[in-house]
Write a structure and sequence with these properties.
Helices cover 86% and strands 0% of the residues. With 123 residues, it is mainly α. The relative contact order is 0.07. Keywords: Cell membrane, Membrane, Transmembrane, Transmembrane helix.
Length: 123
Amino acid sequence: MLYGVTVIFIALFAGEAVNRLVLGAIPGPVTGMLLLTLFAFFRRGFDRRVVDFSSALLRYLALLFIPAGVGLMTLSTQISSQGWALLLTLLISTVITMSVTALLLQYLLRRKRDAAPYQDEQP
């Protein structure tokens, strides 16, 4: 578990460092997640310890949204004045996210299906 925590926090800190040194417009955790994804892509997957820690972290993901929800309550006047713009933005971003996720899933499933016959031939 300590190895998984270390890898994820190194990715987070690397993302923050890249964000502060180069990018600036993209949040550091997002950059860190992209770096972690690139790391997994080049290693052809994650170590089991990272997967176990990530699964445990995802189990309690809903608790991490509580501070953000409370923060939204303090912005109620701004949200009520710009509600339609926020609603439209949420709607468009949800449609884009779902479309990209569906296309990526189709691509990965097709890739896995095409690679399956070759996996039986490897020793």
